[in-house]
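2024-03-11 09:14:02 DEBUG pipeline.ingest accepted 1 chain
2024-03-11 09:14:02 DEBUG pipeline.ingest length=123
2024-03-11 09:14:03 DEBUG pipeline.predict start
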Amino acid sequence: QLLTATVKLFLKQPADTQEMVQRVLNMATEESDNPDLRDRGFVYWRLLSTNPEAAKAVVLAEKPNIADDTFSLEPELLALLVQDMATLASIYHKPASAFVMKSSGLGESKDEDEDEEYYEEGE
């Protein structure tokens, strides 16, 4: 969070914070054992060195609102989706019957009858 905050501050006030952002990026990329922090530092460093305007567009971009649509579903549908939580139904927000076709049973073998005859003969 400090890395991102430092880069944002640099993008807003580059003249006052250039030394600070260089020091923080250096620490993040060369002294950090955390691979996520190191990678983020390299991304920021690359963005700032190649195209500061693109860095502004990426780092200072508005974050989209995340909406909770849990209560916008009908209670009956929500109950079905909760029952089918580990299936595609919860991803599609539709009951499984809306997109899964049931097998008609055609093509099933009747080997069970043959097995019973075999056991009767072999006893």
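2024-03-11 09:14:41 DEBUG pipeline.report The chain has seven helices and no strands.
2024-03-11 09:14:41 DEBUG pipeline.predict end
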